[in-house]
# Entry
Amino acid sequence: MTVYLRQVAAIVRKDLLLELRTRERLAAMGGLTVLVAILFHFAIDQGLVRMQQLAAGLLWMTILFGGMLGMGRTFEMEREHGAIQGLLASPIPLDGIYLAKVISNFVLVALIEVIALAAYWLFFGFDYGGDPLLLAGVLAVATLGVVAVTTLFSAISAQTTMGQTLLPILIFPLLVPVVIFGVTATGRIFASRPAQEVEGSLYLLAAFAVLSLAAGAILFRYVVEE
Amino acid sequence: MRSLRSRPETVLLAALAALLAFAAPVSAQVGTEVLAQQSLRPYWYVFIAYSLAWLLLVGWMFSIGRRMRGLEHGGTGDRDA
Amino acid sequence: MSLTRIRWMAMVLGVLGVAGVLVLHWLVFFWVGTERTMGIVQRIFYVHVPSAWVTFLAFGITALCGAAYLWLRDERLDWAAQSAAEGGLVFGAIMLTSGPLWAAYAWGTPWTWEPRLTLTLLMWFVFLGYFLVRASAEDRLAGKRMAAVIGVLGALLIPLVHVSVLWFPSLHPQPVVLNIDEGPTLDSDMLITLMVGLLAFTLIFFSIVIFRYGLEHLRYQHALETRDQPRAA
# Structure
């Protein structure tokens, strides 16, 4: 078990180090996050609707699109230099590779969530209300579900001629439950509603995360198998 | 018999003909009930729902038949949809 | 199973199914009573519910055969999964067109974002992705495996569909047949008509899916033949 964890940690370290050196994906994702906020400012007539009422929805759309942009490249980068062959041939179990990719993607998406929260606070003065710990918990659980599904499907789309174009068609139908319950939960936290109103959504988000993570860990081997 | 078997849509064509035969008395019944109901809208909805269902099924059947015939007459069989 | 036997089976099921459909039409248009509150438009029920049942059945078969394919790697399981998925797309389309027609009259709106509607629509899109991945895979075998993975994941959503229905009070009619507490709440003539509809649609579904399976069988034989003797082009 400790060997397994060390192997997973090694890949996570490699991925994050690579990201730290090139800043390829983080630059694109972070840039998109801020730019989307700017576009939302011009897309929404603030004489008609108050931005605060749309806060949760805007936040989640940004996370979803920004996250997809970066996570779609999870395996394309490895394939470009043939590095995936080495990784698959290594003694690390395939589910370990999947888990490592999920963890490194999770770190990336968590970072753009911070950027998004900061950008929306700066641009629109959003009131994030409620309990910051509860907000962090909801975001973490929901993000885990998103990352688990998207990482698996980025391995699929990388092996098709359509590539990243296919990714949204594959993941958006599956991610709708996360959007429904994620927006409900974060929206209620922003409105400073009691924690009991968030509980149900949180449980369903957790169920989704656990289910998709387990399914991804089991199914990943069939996707990358040679 | 063999040629009939290799044409799956023949079954459905026969069914369609039988349905058309059914349609005549149905439309007559619809005509009389309209006076009582004073509205044709629900009848149209039912009609559209049932015909769309059978159109979709017959269309699917024809597409399978077409792909099958393409293969039997030396098609490539590469098309995967 | 030989191709002739596959076709023969499909033919027998098809004839039975068409007979069932004819009986269903007679029952729907001449025999069954008109529902009191919704009126004539309620007769869409007898295509909507059977097609919904067949759609779920198809997606179940796709997921089971897909999972078994990943395990046993028998080509025939992949043929079955693919054929059932295509059936699911067609019957799903019937469910998704007949439902809004009924709703437009009975509820006054063709579509509501009610959990069951939303998730069945999404399930339909998952299986659209199933065929997109198959068609665009760089490697045919990988395409089959990836499609199977999508099929299994799609079916994992079905429990979530059910949970979301239980969690949200909604506009969608509550289950009227499998109602354990009070027993079936449908009138007996409507129940009989529905049962005939379910049987007829299931038979038609299996008949066409078996034909579709025969197509894959033929494609396989064809591939073997062309490999043995290269075509003079």
Summary: The mean pLDDT of chain A is 88. The two ends of chain A are 26 Å apart (CA to CA).
